[in-house]
Amino acid sequence: MILRPRAQHRGEPVLRIIDETEARSFYGDFLGFEIGWAYKIDGEPVYMGLAMGEDIQLHLTESPNNAEVGGYIAIDDVDRYCADLRARDPNFEPVLEDKPYGMREFRVVDPFGNRLKFASSLE
Q1: Superfamily designation of domain 14-121
Q2: Is the pLDDT of residue 28 over 70?
Q3: φ/ψ (deg, to 5) at 97
Q4: Which residues make beta-bridge pairs with 94?
Q5: Residue 7, CA distances (Å) to 13, 55, 91, 123 in order
Q6: Which of 1, 10, 114, 119 could form a disulfide with 5 if both were Cys (CB 3.0 to 4.6 A apart)?
Q7: Mean pLDDT of 32-47
Q8: What does the DSSP assignment read for the chain?
Q9: pLDDT at 40
Q10: Taking the domains of the chain in order of start, what are their residue ranges?
């Protein structure tokens, strides 16, 4: 699957997590991100960089005071990615929607309350 940002100047969302092990499992094993690096020193919270392909990147930071945040990730084939996630977890039942602004998308909420929206163009 080829993933790419929506614009040339991409943003890299920073999402708050509470548990590093659970985050590694959810983002790595389930969503398919690779952990590129993790920075943790002297008991400080972890800060990780994740990637999916060459163009999609997220940052995760551990925080006991979690606030809901989210990110928007544009991909080439949202239906295929959704099917891949369903194959990994048969209980995963996202709602794929065609939006009037020309995108087909679904949402995922991570174990920490962060909302991620995966989308591809209807064109």
Answers
A1: 2,3-Dihydroxybiphenyl 1,2-Dioxygenase, domain 1 (3.10.180.10)
A2: yes
A3: -130, 140
A4: none
A5: 14, 11, 33, 16
A6: 10
A7: 85
A8: --B--SSSS----EEEES-HHHHIIIIIIIT--EEEEEE--TTPPPEEEEEETTTEEEEEEE-SS----EEEEEBS-HHHHHHHHHHH-TT-----EE-TTSEEEEEEE-TTS-EEEEEEE--
A9: 82
A10: 14-121
User: Is the whole-model pTM more than 0.85?
Assistant: no
Q: How far is CA 98 from CA 102, 103, 120, in A?
A: 7, 6, 10
Tokens 């969503």 -> residue: 31
Q: What is d(CA 55, CA 102) in angstroms, rounded to the nearest whole number?
A: 22
Closest by CA to 23, choosing from 114, 93, 118, 84, is: 114
Residue type, 38: A
Please choose, from the candidates 3, 6, 27, 5, the residue with its C-alpha nearest in 3D space to the C-alpha of residue 16.
27
Structure tokens at 39: 């920075």
Closest CA to 116 of 82, 84, 91, 89: 82
